[in-house]
Each structure stands twice: as structure tokens, then as C-alpha cells.
Amino acid sequence: MHQETIKTSHENISMSTNSLNQNTKFDNQSFISSRKIENITKEQQHRRTTIYLSNVHPKSADYFQPTSTIISSSSTRPSTIHVNELHKTEDDNGKIELTTLNNHFENYLNQIKILANRNINLRHEIANILQTYMSPMEEEKQNDNKNSCSLEIEFNNLRQQLNHELRKLIKIQTRLQRADYDKKYYKNKVRLFSKSDQYQIIQQQLDAYVYELNLLKEQYEKQEQNLISYKRQYNEYIMKLIEYTNEYNKIIYERIQSENSLHTLNEQLLFEREYNKKCQQEFEQFEKIQYDINNEFNKTEFKKILEKIRQDFQNYNEIQLSELELYYKTKLDLIQINFRENENEYENENENHSEEIKQLKEQNQSLQNKLKQLENEFHHIDEQYQQQYDLSYDEYYHLDIQISELESLILYSQT
């Protein structure tokens, strides 16, 4: 019976801890640290050893047996010796099994320590990675941490309460197991000593322990109800935390999109500025070139036209002079011969010469008019280029206004 109670107690403890861990799904670091687990297990081992490894239990029937009954009857001595031998063998077997169980439990604790250390190392690595890759988002995290500080405080308080309730529950379980063991133990003692005088004392003690066991069961049920309520609150806070994390991820995604769009707008703005500068430079160069070309073209054309006019006029004058010289020579000869006779003819010739001079003057006037027309055309072309320049300057001014508006929008989006 002693061995069976030891096995059942250890199995009940392991099953209760496993069920609690499966239901609540706590981490080793989030709710109960490895040191706390070690302290609890050490306390449980100490209690078990104090309960189960004592050779003479303080609540056993041998402890309460008076000396008169041991000395008086010689017939009960062999039965008590036999019972003592049975208890010794059971205690020895229980000690052996307890040592094996303790060894298994130590191995289990060592594995838990190793896993906890690995978990700590992994969390440190994750924290380092987050610090390296999420450094530009630390300000937002600080703002979010300020907002979620109250929730974390409540969450930590619930954790502490849950840990406290778990400790109470484990203590109550150990006390229940101890009470069950004492109940079974005293039932066996009652069977062995039913004919003795101590039956009434043991019966009274058993009633007291049954009453204590019922009280412990009531406390256990209350603790279970409290733990269920804390589990519900914990699940609610976990759902809230998941919602806040999703909102935080959405905010991060929107900020990344805004930063990308801002970057593209900055690049587009720089490109537009460079393009406008190049267009302005090209326009200025083109304007200078056009102005120079027009000036040179007009100058060269006017020079050519004037030179042609001068050459034509000179050639015409030379031809006229040569003809006139020949004509005058002939005429002078004729005049000298027939001066008196051809006086009227000479007058007619003078009139013809005057008409030719008039024609030359008219040609000169027409050339001057053509020159004025060319000047007017030059002014008209210059005005057209000036209008084009004004239009391009207006476009440049509107583009500059649009760029300033885009810069203000970008600054507003950054703030």
C-alpha cells in the first residue's frame, strides 16, 4: 500500500502539472521561471521525504500506542513484530522507489533547465535581431509601449496572481495527496488494530482528517474556480494583445508604404527639378543661339543685299557713264559740227536723262522700302520669340509653384 500511494501521489502531481501547462499554455519564462520551478519541486521533494520517508510516522498507530499495551500482553508481540517487519520492508521498497523517482525527477528538471537556457539564448538572439533591424521603428514602439503600458501592467498582475494561485493549487494538491495517503494509511492501521484499545482514538483522528480532507477539497474547488476565471481573463487579454499587434503591424505597413511613396516623390521631384533646369538651360542656349543666328543672318543678308544693290548700282552707273561718254563724244562732235542745227535735239536728250535719273531714284526708294519691310519682319520674328519665351517662363513659374506645393505636401506627410 505504501508503494502504491507513493506512485499514485507522484503520478497525480505530474498529471496535474501537465494538465495545467496544457490548459494554460504558459512558457517557462512568461509565468513561472526555472528557479521558481526548482524551488517548488524542492519543497515538494522535502514534503514527500518528510511525509513518506519517515520510519516512524508521527500520526501512526505505533506512535500513539501506550507502553502498557506493549508490555502487558505477550500474545500481541509476535503480531506487532510481524507488522513492524512488513512496514520495514514496505519502507525500504518505498525508499528505493523514491530514490528512482527522485532521479527521474532530477533528470526532468535538468532537461527543463537546458530548455530554459536555450529559450533565453533564443530570446536574446531575437532581441538583438530586432534591435538591429527594427532600429528606425523604436520611436513608434516607444509610443505604442506607452499606450500598451497599462495593459502590460494588468497582464503582469494577472500573471503574478496566476502564479500565486498555481502555487496554492500545488500546495493544496500535495496536502490532498498527503491526506489521501494518511487516510489509506490509517484505514490499514484501523484494520490491523481494530481489536485494540486505540481503535477509538484512531477513529477520532480519522474523522478529524476526513473533515480536514473535505475542507481541503472545498478549498481546492474554490481555487479551481478562481483559476478558471483567471484563465478566461488571460485569454481575453491575449485576444486584445493579438488585436493590438495586428493594428501595430498595419500601422507599420502603412508607414512603410508612405515612406516608399515619399521616396518616389522625392526622386520624382529631383528629376523634375533637374529636367526643368536642363530645359531652362537649353531654352536659354537656344534663345541665345537663335538671337545670334537671327542677328548674324539679318546682318549678313542686309550686307549682301546692300552689296548687291551697290554693285548693281555701280555697274549700272558705269555702263551708263560709259554709254554717256561715248554718246557725248559723238554728240559733241555732232554738236560742234551742228550745234546750232541740233539745239532742239540736245534739249530733248537732256529731258530723257532727267527721266532716267527719276527712275533711278524710284528704284532706290523701292530698295529702301524693302529694307524697312525686312526690318519689320525682323521685329515681328523677335516679338514671336519673345512671346514664346514668356510662355515658357510662365510654364516654368507654374511648375515651380507645383514643386513647392509637392514639397509642402511631403513635409506635411512626414509630420
Q: Could you describe the 3D structure shown?
A:
The chain is mainly α and 415 residues long. Among the domains are: 1-61 and 77-133; 265-414. The protein is 90% helix and 0% strand. The protein has nine helices and no strands. The protein has helices at 2-24, 34-52, 61-64, 67-72, 77-133, 138-147, 149-192, 199-338, 343-414. Helix 1 (2-24) packs parallel to helix 5 (77-133), helix 7 runs antiparallel to helix 8 and helix 8 runs antiparallel to helix 9. The two termini are 77 Å apart. 5% of the residues are buried. The model is unreliable at 1-10, 19-38 and 44-78 (pLDDT under 50).
Key attributes of the depicted protein:
single chain; 90% helix; mainly alpha; disordered N terminus; 415 residues
Order of helices and strands: HHHHHHHHH
Strand content: under 5%
Q: Tally the beta strands.
A: 0
Whole-angstrom Rg: 61 Å
Secondary-structure class: mainly alpha
> In angstroms, what separates the terminal alpha carbons?
77 Å
What is the overall pLDDT average? 68
Helices, by number, come to 9
Helix content: over 70%
Blueprint of the fold:
Blueprint (H helix, E strand, L loop, with lengths): L1 H23 L9 H19 L8 H4 L2 H6 L4 H57 L4 H10 L1 H44 L6 H140 L4 H72 L1
Short structural summary:
The chain has helices spanning 2-24, 34-52, 61-64, 67-72, 77-133, 138-147, 149-192, 199-338, 343-414. It is mainly α.
